[in-house]
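Quick one, C-alpha cells below. Sequence please?
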C-alpha cells in the first residue's frame, strides 16, 4: 500500500480482522502481513471489540515514514498475537499510537522481538488503560520493552487497594501471628508499582502556575523516566544480553495501573520474590517511622505484592551493633512466622542507627534516602529490591544480609547466574583499590578453588580480614593482580595493577542462621556491639585464628564482655565454610557520608553515569536554566527567583523567591519563604518535633564537613570541636550560651551531636530562619543571642521527632507536584488538538 490518504476507517465492528497462517497466491506462508509507505493515516477505528487477531505471521506490520500509524478510541482489545517473530519494525514515525480508554492494550505470547523503533518522536501516548501489556515467554529478556521515554507513573488517579492475599504484609517484631490466607504457598506477579509549611508554608501556592520547564535530555541520555535508566556498561547487574537488575527497577515502581506484569516474561511463581524483607531499626521510635513509610509505599503501590515486610527494633538497653541486630532479627522472624521461616528466602537490610555522618537521613532512616531518579523519586529501598531481583530464584532458604547505604553494581555474561546454594556463608567479592581494603572486609582467596572463567567465578575464602592495614594484606596473600582474576600478585608487581577483593553482601543458609539464633537465645542479652562482618566472617575459613577476638582497635565503643562474646562466636562458627562469588566486573559504592552523598549525586561520578541520575527529579524548578546541571533537586518545589549553586542537593523542600543556595550545600525537609543567602558548604535539615502535644520545629545547621561523631569527655576539651570553621566555645560566646554540663544531652559524650544549640520554633520557616542566623553570626563573628529559646541537641531532636508531621509535609509537596504535572498534561492535550 503506497500513498494512501486513509487506509481504513471502521466503526462498531465486532471483529475487524482474523488471520491464521495467511498465505499468498502460491499458498506459501506470508512473509509480510502489511507494508505501508507514506500514508497520512494508516488506520482509524472506533468501538472495535477486537481489532486484530493473528497467528504465525513472520512480520505483522512494516511501515516507513507514517505521520500517524494508528489512532484508536474505546476498544476492548487492541491485539491478541501468538508466535510472531517480529511484531513491528518502525522508522521515523512522528506519532506511533495514540490510545484512549483501553481496557487491554495487548496480549502477546511467544514473541522473539516485541518492537524495534528508530527516531520516533512519541512512541506511545496512553490514557486510562487498565492493563498496558501482558506478555508471556518473550525471549528479549526481563525488561520486555526497552523503551525509556514512557511516563505513566503514580501521578494519575487513585491507587486501588491491593487484593487480600496479594498485599505485602508490614509487620513489627512483636505484632500478630501469621495470616491464615496462604502465606508462603504462592506469590503473585510483581506489581507495576514498583502540604505544608506548617502554619505558614502549608497554605503555599498550590496554584503556582510555574513548573519544571526543563529541556528533555538528548536521545540516549534520557534520565531514567521508566524507572532506572537502562544502565550503561558495565555495571548494574547487567547481563550481556541486556537483562539488567538496575534497569528492572521499573518493575518495582510503576504506574497507577495495578495489573501485574511478569518477571521475566511469565507470571511470578513461588521462589521468584523474597519471602520476607526485614528492616532493622535502632529503637521502637525508628521502627514506627519505618512502618509508616512502608505503609505509604504499599498504599501507593510502590512495593512488590506478596512479600512480607517485617521491621525489627533492637531491644532496649546498650547498643548491639549490626551483628546483634542480625541475631535479633532472626529471633523476630521465628516469633512472627514460627517454623514457617525455615523455608523462607529473606532479605535482611541493616537500616538502624542514627546516621551521624549523613544526618538528613537520621529522622526517617537511611533505607528511605531519596535518589535523584524516577517520577516520583525512588529511595534506597526500591534500588535494593531491584539490585537483588534475581537472587531469590537462585537461592536456597536462608538470609541475605546487606546494609542500607551501599550500592553494588555488577555485570555478568548472559549464561552466568549468581547462585546461593551452598551451606555456610556465601559472600560477594569486588575488586577494589588497596586503600579501599583498609576500611572494608578483605577476602584472602584460595585460587585453586576457583571455578568459572570471565567476570563471574565461584571459590572459597582461606581467611577474612576486617579493615586490615596494607602490610597485613600483603603478608596474608590478599593482594591480587588486577584484570587477571583473583591471582596473587608477585613481589615485583606494579602497585597500580594490584587490587584486593572486598566485601559487600553475604548470605547464610538456614542451618547456619539457626545456629546463630540458638546462640543468641542462650546469651539472653548482649551487653556489647558486635559486627556482622568483622565478628561473623573473621571466624570462617581454614585460615581463621582467634587473634581478632582480642583486637578492639576498630571498635568505637567496647561494651561489656565484647572479647568473651567474640570468642564464643569463634568457637561456634570455626570450621564453617566461607564461599565467595567473585564479581570481577563490579563496583561497590557507599553513600553514608555527606561528602559521598554530594559526590555521587551532583558530580559526574561513575555511579551517576551508571544509574542515570537526574539533576532534577520529580520537582518543580522553573528557573533550572539559571542553575548548573551539577546539582540534585529531589521532590522539591523551587519558585521563580531562587538560585541553587553547583554541587548542591535539595530534597523534600520548598524554596521561595530570593533564596540563594551556595555551592556544595545540602538542604533537606525545609521551607524557606524569605530572602536569604545560604553560604556554600552548608548542611541544613529540619525536623518536626512533639515535646508536649504541640507540633513544633527545629532545624539543624552545620558545615558539610563538620564531624558530628566526634566527642570529648570533659568540658575543658570542647575547644577541639569545630562548627563551620570555628571552635564550639567561640560559637557559644557569640550565641550567649554558657558552656556547662547542662549544655549537652549526654554527660559522657560532649560533641556537636549532643550540644543543645538549636532553637525550637512554632513554624518551620521560622526554625530555618533562626538556624541560618546562628550560622551567619559565626561566619561574620557577630553576636546572635539564643538565650530565652528552648534549645535541643540533634540527639534530642530525633528522640522527639514527629514522623507523621514530617511525612505530611513530604506528601503535600508530592501532591502539589502531581497536580502541576496533571495540569501540564491537560494543557498539552488542549494545545495539541
Amino acid at each position: 500500500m503506497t500513498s494512501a490518504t486513509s487506509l481504513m476507517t471502521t466503526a462498531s465492528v465486532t471483529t475487524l480482522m482474523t488471520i491464521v497462517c495467511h498465505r499468498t497466491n502460491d499458498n506459501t506462508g506470508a512473509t509480510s502481513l502489511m507494508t505501508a509507505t507514506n500514508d497520512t493515516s494508516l488506520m482509524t477505528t472506533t468501538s472495535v471489540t477486537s481489532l486484530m487477531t493473528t497467528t504465525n505471521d513472520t512480520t505483522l506490520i512494516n511501515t516507513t515514514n507514517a505521520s500517524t500509524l494508528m489512532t484508536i478510541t474505546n476498544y476492548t482489545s487492541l491485539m491478541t498475537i501468538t508466535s510472531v517473530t517480529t511484531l513491528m519494525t518502525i522508522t521515523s514515525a512522528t506519532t506511533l499510537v495514540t490510545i484512549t480508554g483501553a481496557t487491554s492494550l495487548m496480549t502477546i505470547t511467544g514473541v522473539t522481538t516485541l518492537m524495534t523503533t528508530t527516531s520516533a518522536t512519541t512512541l506511545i501516548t496512553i490514557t486510562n488503560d487498565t492493563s498496558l501489556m501482558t506478555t508471556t515467554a518473550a525471549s528479549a529478556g526481563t525488561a520486555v520493552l526497552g523503551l525509556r521515554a514512557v511516563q505513566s507513573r503514580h501521578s494519575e488517579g487513585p491507587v486501588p487497594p491491593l487484593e487480600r492475599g496479594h498485599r505485602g504484609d508490614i509487620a513489627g517484631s512483636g505484632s500478630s501471628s501469621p495470616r491464615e490466607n496462604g502465606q508462603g504457598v504462592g506469590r503473585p506477579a510483581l506489581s507495576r508499582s514498583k502540604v505544608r509549611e506548617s502554619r505558614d508554608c502549608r497554605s503555599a501556592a498550590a496554584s503556582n502556575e510555574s513548573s519544571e520547564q526543563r529541556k528533555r535530555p538528548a536521545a540516549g541520555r534520557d534520565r531514567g523516566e521508566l524507572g532506572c535508566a537502562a544502565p550503561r556498561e558495565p555495571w548494574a547487574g547487567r547481563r550481556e544480553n541486556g537483562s539488567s537488575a538496575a534497569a528492572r527497577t521499573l518493575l518495582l515502581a510503576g504506574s497507577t495501573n495495578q495489573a501485574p506484569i511478569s518477571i521475566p516474561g511469565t507470571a511470578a511463581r513461588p521462589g521468584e520474590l523474597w519471602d520476607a524483607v526485614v528492616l532493622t531499626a535502632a529503637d521502637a521510635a525508628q521502627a514506627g517511622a519505618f512502618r509508616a513509610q512502608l505503609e505509604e509505599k504499599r498504599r501507593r503501590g510502590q512495593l512488590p505484592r506478596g512479600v512480607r515486610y517485617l521491621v525489627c527494633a533492637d531491644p532496649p538497653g546498650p547498643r548491639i551493633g549490626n551483628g546483634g541486630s542480625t541475631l535479633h532479627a532472626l529471633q523476630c522472624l521465628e516469633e512472627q512466622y514460627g517454623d514457617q521461616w525455615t523455608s523462607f528466602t529473606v532479605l535482611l537490610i541493616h537500616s538502624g542507627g542514627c546516621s551521624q555522618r549523613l544526618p538528613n537521613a537520621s529522622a526517617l532512616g537511611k533505607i528511605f534516602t531519596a535518589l535523584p531518579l524516577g517520577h516520583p523519586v525512588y529511595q534506597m529501598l526500591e534500588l535494593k529490591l531491584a539490585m537483588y531481583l534475581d537472587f531469590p530464584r537462585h537461592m536456597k532458604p536462608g538470609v541475605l544480609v546487606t546494609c542500607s547505604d551501599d550500592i553494588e553494581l555488577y555485570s555478568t555474561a548472559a549464561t552466568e547466574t549468581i547462585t546461593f546454594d551452598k551451606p555456610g556463608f556465601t559472600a560477594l567479592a569486588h575488586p577494589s583499590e588497596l586503600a579501599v581494603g583498609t576500611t572494608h572486609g578483605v577476602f584472602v582467596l584460595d585460587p585453586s578453588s576457583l571455578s568459572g572463567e570471565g567476570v563471574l567465578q565461584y571459590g572459597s575464602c582461606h581467611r577474612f580480614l576486617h579493615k586490615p592495614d596494607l602490610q597485613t594484606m600483603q603478608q596474608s596473600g590478599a593482594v591480587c593482580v588486577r584484570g587477571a582474576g583473583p591471582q596473587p600478585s608477585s613481589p615485583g608487581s606494579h602497585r597500580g595493577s594490584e587490587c584486593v577483593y572486598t566485601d559487600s553482601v553475604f548470605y547464610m543458609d538456614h542451618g547456619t542462621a539457626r545456629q546463630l539464633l540458638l546462640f543468641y537465645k542462650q546469651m539472653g542479652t548482649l551487653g556489647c556491639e558486635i559486627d556482622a562482618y568483622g565478628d561473623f566472617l573473621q571466624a570462617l575459613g581454614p585460615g581463621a585464628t582467634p587473634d581478632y577476638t582480642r583486637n578492639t582497635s576498630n571498635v568505637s565503643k567496647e561494651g561489656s564482655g565484647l572479647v568473651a562474646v567474640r570468642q564464643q562466636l569463634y568457637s561456634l562458627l570455626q570450621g564453617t565454610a566461607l564461599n565467595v562469588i567473585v564479581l570481577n566486573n563490579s563496583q561497590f559504592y557507599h553513600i553514608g557520608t555527606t561528602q559521598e552523598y554530594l559526590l555521587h549525586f551532583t558530580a559526574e561520578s561513575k555511579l551517576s553515569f551508571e544509574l542515570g541520575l537526574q539533576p532534577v527529579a520529580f520537582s518543580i524548578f522553573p528557573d533550572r536554566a539559571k542553575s548548573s546541571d551539577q546539582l540534585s533537586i529531589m521532590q522539591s518545589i523551587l519558585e521563580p527567583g531562587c538560585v541553587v549553586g553547583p554541587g548542591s542537593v535539595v530534597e523534600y523542600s520548598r524554596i521561595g523567591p530570593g533564596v540563594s543556595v551556595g555551592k556544595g550545600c545540602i538542604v533537606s525537609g525545609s521551607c524557606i519563604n524569605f530572602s536569604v543567602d545560604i553560604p556554600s558548604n552548608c548542611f541544613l535539615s529540619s525536623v518536626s518535633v512533639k515535646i508536649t502535644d504541640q507540633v513544633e520545629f527545629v532545624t539543624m545547621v552545620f558545615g558539610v564537613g563538620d564531624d558530628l561523631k566526634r566527642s570529648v569527655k570533659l568540658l575543658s576539651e570542647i575547644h577541639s570541636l569545630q562548627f563551620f570553621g570555628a571552635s564550639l566555645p567561640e560559637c557559644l560566646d557569640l550565641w550567649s550560651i554558657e558552656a556547662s554540663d547542662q549544655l549537652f544531652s549526654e554527660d559522657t559524650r560532649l560533641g556537636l551531636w549532643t550540644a543543645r544549640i538549636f532553637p525550637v520554633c512554632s513554624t518551620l520557616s521560622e526554625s530555618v530562619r533562626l538556624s541560618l542566623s546562628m550560622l551567619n553570626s559565626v561566619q561574620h563573628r557577630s553576636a546572635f543571642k539564643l538565650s530565652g529559646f528552648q534549645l535541643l541537641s540533634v540527639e534530642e531532636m530525633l528522640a522527639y521527632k514527629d514522623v507523621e508531621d514530617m511525612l505530611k509535609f513530604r506528601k503535600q509537596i508530592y501532591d502539589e507536584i502531581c497536580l502541576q504535572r496533571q495540569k501540564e498534561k491537560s494543557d498539552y492535550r488542549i494545545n495539541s488538538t
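The chain has a mean pLDDT of 76. The first strand starts at residue 9 and ends at 11.
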